[in-house]
Amino acid sequence: MKANIRKIATFVEETQTEMGRKVDPPTRRAAAVAVIENPCAGKYVEDLSELTAIGEELGELLTQRAVAALGIAANTAESYGKAAAVGENGEIEHAAAILHPKLGTPVRKVLGKGAALIPSSKKRGGLGVVLDIPLGHKDAAFVRSHFDGMEVRINDAPRANEIMVAIAVTDSGRPLPRVGGLTKDQIKGEDGLR
Amino acid sequence: MPEVRIRKKLSIVEEIFHEGGSPPAIPLRRAAALAVIHNPYAGQYVPEIASFMDDLKPLGLDMARSLVISLGGDAKVVEGYGKGAIVGSAGELEHGALWHVPGGYAMREVLGGAKAIVASTKKVGGPGTRLDVPITHINASYVRSHFDAMEIGLADSPRADEILLALIMTTGQRIHARVGGLKAFEIKGEDGLR
Asked: Phi-psi category of A30—alpha, beta or left, where left has phi over 0 and alpha has psi -120 to 50?
């Protein structure tokens, strides 16, 4: 294990009704969040490959945790997203080093597919910072019913020398989608877009 | 007898490996189960509300069981517990007090007769309100190593006419507990205090 993990939190949300209308089946989404030591905190580090390696490791671990928390077969996941919050002694570039170069491949390996870009967000912040993880359909980014976001927050993270890394996985889109656009039964799944 | 209408559920599991000290052999796990329900008394003063406690019992049991499952399925690993409620703005604090009996009863039932009072807190608040739910040892309130708290909340809850209900279970003492006091192995377990 390359990452020094202080804690891992998993969140599972299930929406059963919205505006008094039943959501059937309920929509469910999970996020797994690791709080890790930032090995590059407090100084300028040119080569961020250590963080990139941590990203690869967390891509697998957190996707597995999120899928397990949902209790679904990994290949039935519908949408995904990723995000990171860097503590005050780190750079936004540290979040980029974790999220972008190598994290995606193990995510897709765990889920079986994932032709679409994994939507992402990043920020720097103090303890209890709110992280909004964007969500999009994993095989076709334009599926409108699956544009969404999930908020996660851990009151004691990230400390100054830490990074919060989050991966969200769902088995569904928004609770009562009705704004048109590409639907999931129309996915061609060739280019990751439609 | 008002029915219990659930809009949404959230489960949170934290696995804590260390907090700067040497990681114990077994990480601490803390789990929270949240349910967002319609407040049948919102928007008016209703003198008789106590009967709703019975209606909440099945939900309490459901949440308590889900916590044990979140922690691996064996009730014997549970050492700490707590409960809380956030009442939406069209309700009164007293509506949160409805959770004391069904929430506590449910956890005792599932844990097989825990002796200590279930630590609790409640407040009135809007969507996104955070609640620091106190946690104490399930058989002896004075066990100092198990005094803890877990922050919970949900970005879109509670709405004005809703109540957010929470139960929490943990698997052990604070991760680096070392401030003395009554130890878990010293419990007599007769009065729920020591």
From this structure: beta
